[in-house]
Structure formats: structure tokens, C-alpha cells
Design brief:
Length: 422
């Protein structure tokens, strides 16, 4: 991406600033759509802060694995679209392309098929190599999904051994290809809203850093620590534990590693404002911004219904709602009986369908009929004097800036570059 500084250099600059008394947390954003990328980069440019775009394998992946659901992106098309937006808006800041949860069985179909371990590992390594060839800056090595341990957690030693095996393979590939240095993120969040034990977290970093060093590989830039957050529906239903988060941050810092928090969606301003104070290095947020964009489209559809002739209406809401339910991707975000409800029964329940559309509308943006209706709605609104694209952009920026402001990110890019004498 032709960054002025690599993500490793950014982390080193961040350490310098923090030694000088600066307090801040950085932000990773899931690339749920091209409008979200544009809003993110515009805001990062306007407010002068670095940004990480964190793509899961379900969102962005090689064509051989079925590509991603966002704009049918593989790694090359994703990079090309980000570059196109940068050129369009004249972006000249720090933007890092990151792989989020890139390990074995991290694609839903791989986990559902219960692929053998050798095949799952080989596929994820091929995906990572494509990331590297495309110019990604940071790779999250997450081998904590395994069908053999579907009812529990993958044992500690297996997670570390697979992490080291993957990083060693990727570093050998990087050197063979003459690719630039790349950053790594290790570990994962607990998905039940529990806490990462401080002792276990410290032991994980100790052993991982030692095993990597024995192979001549530097420590990762980030290790993921769970602080009690948990995203369900459109809420954070976990219980953020400030004391635990502070201890995780302190233990990571002993190894020169940053602690990365996942599942930061929908947290209150009060909790977000505390993050720089307790030195949480970074946080990932993704589904919240998809919900914001979907709500903007649905709000615009109401305006369309009031301001456009009935014969010209796009019918976006009904189309998006049907495909959101049929996608069944909502099952991972819901709780209780709703998680096992039949699609045909959900479609008969207007209230439930609306709730699912709210949380899963972003999965439908690239379905041809939904995409066409979004375009038709925006065209209809433009003809009556409503700039729908600008409204979506405005809503996304407001949502992103809540995090950027609370994390004291405004002006951070200039400070990071100055710390390195750039």
C-alpha cells in the first residue's frame, strides 16, 4: 500500500510516544463494504489518524477458496479497490491491510466440512501467501478453530505449535520471494464473553516469543486478549473488565507486544474513553459498521417511499430483508431459540425479519438484485434532491469517529511520523 512506515515501524513509534506520556488506542475496522472503506479513509485523512482494515477470510479470500462475500473480493481485488479509493480522495495517510482470523477452519465451509488438519493447515497457508503477495501488512495467525474440539477449546500447546509452524512457513516464503517485512498478530478472543486469564496470557506470550526467537523470528506486533466483551445482535452483552484489561496490557508490554481487543462493537463511550488510560493498544470493530450502513439504507428507503412515485419505487427493504434471512449468517449473532429457527418461519415473522435484516443486511449488498435496488433507490432519491450516498457516508463517519475520538486518535499520524523523524 506504499505506506510511509511499516506496521512494525508504526508500533515502534507508538512505543516512543507512550514513553513520552501520550495515551491512545488504535482502531481496526472490518471492510464490510466499499462505502465503509471510503468513509474510513476520508475520516482518517480529515482527522489525521492511522487505520487498520481487518479482513476475515469470509470477507476476503482467494478465488480458489470461493473468494469473500464483500464485493466478491479476493486479496488482489480488495487491494485494488482500497487503492482506487485512496486515489479518488487523495489519501496520503497510514492505512494498513490486515488479515483477521486467517487460520485453519476460519472459513465457515471449511469448518462445516470438518476438513482434516493437514488440509485445513495447507489451505490457510496458501491463503496467507496470497495475502503476502497482494501486499497485506499484518497477518492474524489464529489456529483456535478445530472441529475436533468443537465442544471445547483447542489445547494450549496445539495453538502455540500451529502458530509457530504457520509463521515459520510464511517467513520462509517471504524471504524466498524478497517480500518486505510483515507484522503478525497471535491468539484469539474467547467467544463466550469470558476473560483471558492473566497468567495464561502471560505464559502464552512467554512460550510463543521464545519458540519464535529460537527460529530467528521476531515477536508478533499484537497478541489478542479478551477483556469480557461479547457482541450479540446489536449490543455488546459482555462485561468489560477494566482491571483485567490493564493487567493484560502490562503483561504484553513486558514482551514489547501490543494487546489487541476484539469484539469492541457497541461499547459505551465511558468504556471506550478508558481504553487509552489502561493502555489497550488496539481494538477491532466490524459488525457495528455494517449495521450502521444497513440502517442508513433502510432510512433512505422510507424517504423514497414518501418522496418518489409508487410505480418507481425500488422495493429495496423487502428484497434486502428476504436475502438477509435466507443467508442464515445471522445464526452466529443470535441467542436462544432464535438461533435454530427455520428460515420459512422467520420470514413469516415481520418483527424477527426486521431484526435479522438490521444485523445481517450487509451480507446482501453484493447479491445482484439487492445491489440493483440500492442503485435504483439512490438514483430515485437523487432525482428528488436527496443525496443518499452522502447520507450513508455521513452516518458511517459519525460511527467511526466515536471510536477515533474516544481513543485519542485525532492527529496521531503526524505524531507517529514525527516520533520516527519522518
Amino acid at each position: 500500500m506504499n505506506n510511509k512506515i511499516s506496521i512494525t515501524e508504526m508500533m515502534n513509534a507508538a512505543k516512543i510516544l507512550k514513553e513520552q506520556g501520550e495515551k491512545f488506542t488504535t482502531l481496526g475496522i472490518g471492510p464490510m463494504s466499499k462505502p465503509l472503506i471510503k468513509a474510513t479513509l476520508e475520516l482518517a485523512s480529515e482527522k489525521d489518524f492511522p487505520i487498520m482494515l481487518i479482513a476475515s477470510r469470509n470477507q476476503v479470500d482467494s478465488d480458489e477458496f470461493g473468494h469473500g462475500y464483500v464485493r466478491d473480493w479476493d486479496q488482489d481485488r480488495f487491494v485494488a479497490d482500497v487503492k482506487a479509493v485512496q486515489e479518488e480522495i487523495g489519501f496520503d495517510g497510514l492505512c494498513y491491510l490486515c488479515r483477521d482470523h486467517g487460520g485453519p477452519w476460519q472459513r465457515d465451509e471449511e469448518r462445516n466440512a470438518k476438513l482434516p488438519v493437514d488440509e485445513a493447515m495447507e489451505r490457510c497457508i496458501r491463503s496467507y501467501k496470497h495475502d503476502m503477495d497482494a501486499g497485506f501488512d499484518l497477518l492474524h495467525i489464529d489456529p483456535t478453530k478445530d472441529p475436533e474440539y468443537a465442544m471445547g477449546t483447542v489445547p494450549f500447546d496445539i495453538v502455540i505449535d500451529r502458530t509457530v509452524e504457520i509463521i515459520e512457513e510464511l517467513e520462509n516464503y517471504r524471504k524466498e520471494k524478497g517480500l518486505p517485512e510483515i507484522g503478525y498478530e497471535a491468539g484469539t478472543e474467547e467467544t463466550n464473553g469470558g476473560l483471558t486469564g492473566v497468567d495464561a496470557f502471560s505464559e502464552f506470550i512467554d512460550i510463543l516469543v521464545e519458540k519464535l526467537a529460537a527460529k530467528g523470528i521476531k515477536a508478533p506486533e499484537f497478541v489478542v486478549g479478551q477483556t469480557g466483551t461479547l457482541t450479540r445482535l446489536t449490543e455488546n452483552v459482555g462485561n468489560f473488565n477494566r482491571e483485567n484489561a490493564a493487567l493484560l496490557s502490562a503483561n504484553a508490554a513486558k514482551h514489547g507486544v501490543g494487546v489487541k481487543e476484539h469484539n469492541g462493537d457497541y461499547l459505551s463511550d465511558k468504556i471506550l474513553l478508558e481504553h487509552p488510560v489502561i493502555d489497550v493498544t488496539a481494538m477491532n470493530v466490524a459488525p457495528e459498521f455494517g449495521v450502521v450502513e444497513t440502517r442508513a439504507y433502510l432510512e433512505l428507503s422510507k424517504v423514497e417511499e414518501r418522496c418518489v412515485e409508487e410505480s418507481k419505487l425500488s422495493g429495496l427493504k423487502a428484497e434486502m430483508s428476504e436475502y438477509a434471512v435466507k443467508s442464515e449468517r445471522w445464526r452466529k449473532w443470535v441467542v436462544g431459540e432464535m438461533a435454530t429457527a427455520k428460515v420459512e418461519d422467520v420470514l413469516k415473522d415481520a418483527e424477527l425479519t426486521a431484526q435479522i435484516t438490521d444485523i445481517c443486511g450487509h451480507y446482501t449488498y453484493e447479491i445482484p438484485s439487492v445491489k440493483a435496488k440500492i442503485e435504483k433507490m439512490l438514483k430515485n432519491l437523487k432525482e428528488v434532491g436527496v443525496d443518499g450516498e452522502a447520507y450513508v457516508n455521513y452516518q458511517l463517519k459519525n460511527s467511526i469517529d466515536r471510536y477515533a475520538f474516544c481513543f485519542k486518535m485525532h492527529g496521531l499520524t503526524s505524531k507517529l511520523l514525527k516520533a520516527l523523524g519522518k
